[in-house]
Amino acid sequence: MPNFYIFMGLSMSLKICFYNDLKKKILCVRQKGKLLSFTAFYLAVTAFFFVSGTHVLANDVLLKRGQQLFKKCVHCHTYNKHHDHRIGPNLYGMFGRKAGAILDYDYSDAWKKADFIWTDKTLDTYLKAPHKMIPNNRMPFNGLSKPNDRRALITYMRTIVVP
Ligand code: HEC
After folding, report:
1. Best probe residue, ligand 1, of 139, 154, 155, 156 (max atoms within 8 Å of C-beta)
2. Angle at 130 between CA 109 and CA 115, to 5 degrees
3. 111 lines ligand 1 (CB under 6 A)
4. What phi and psi, each to the nearest 5 degrees, are found at residue 19?
């Protein structure tokens, strides 16, 4: 695409001008009636690629960061359906489940008393300061202080611990 037009401008005399890379000069075409619709189409296509492009990019960066952060968790947690618990409980299917509710994992009393459901919001609060939200819990992790890190981790976890 850049081979054909790198720059496109509108001149006041109702012409559309392209920079033609091969001929190394600016070529102008008279459009008149079609001018407005062509320009609107061009702007719409450009806006679409800009918006969807940056969206994909942002999500990609977020997932990569989340994957990196999740490495801290897999020392102690598995996340596939039939995997055994490690030091911490298996996190498979945790979103929408009550906290501290896996039957064959021996939670500390702190978790047994917990009474909330895992959502993005509760996980965010927990990851910010695990020992503030659940005092006396045995999870030896100090938390993630940066909101963007927590968002990245939760976005990534949403793609892997979900059934
Ligand atoms: C060094 C080990 C360790 C690390 C690292 C660790 N955890 Fe834990 N985690 C635990 C333990 C142990 C428990 C249970 C604590 C208890 O019973 O008091 C737990 C509990 C949890 C629970 C509650 C699960 C439930 O069934 O309600 C969640 C959610 C959790 N951890 C998420 C994470 C995430 C996300 C990370 C990575 C940022 C992480 N943990 C890092 C050991 C760890």
Report:
1. 139
2. 50
3. yes
4. -95, 115
Contact 71, 78 (CB under 8 A): no
SS3 for 28? strand
For residue 130, is pLDDT > 70?
Answer: yes
pTM of the entire predicted model:
0.74
Cα 158 to middle of ligand 1, angstroms: 16
Q: Would the pLDDT of 62 be above 80?
A: yes
Residues 55 and 83 grouped into a single domain: no
Task: Please indicate, yes or no, if residue 66 is contained in any of the structural domains.
Answer: no
Residue 25: which domain range? 3-59
Residues 28-58 have pLDDT tens digits of 777 665 556 666 767 777 777 776 666 666 8
Same domain, yes or no: 35 and 91: no
Measured between alpha carbons, how far is 159 from 109 in angstroms, rounded to an integer?
30
Distance 77 CA to ligand 1 centre (A): 7
Q: Is 100 in the pocket of ligand 1 (CB under 6 A)?
A: yes
Q: Is the CB of 99 under 6 A from ligand 1?
A: yes
Ligand 1 neighbour 134 (Cβ under 6 A):
no
73-107: per-residue pLDDT in tens? 999 999 999 899 999 999 999 999 999 999 999 99
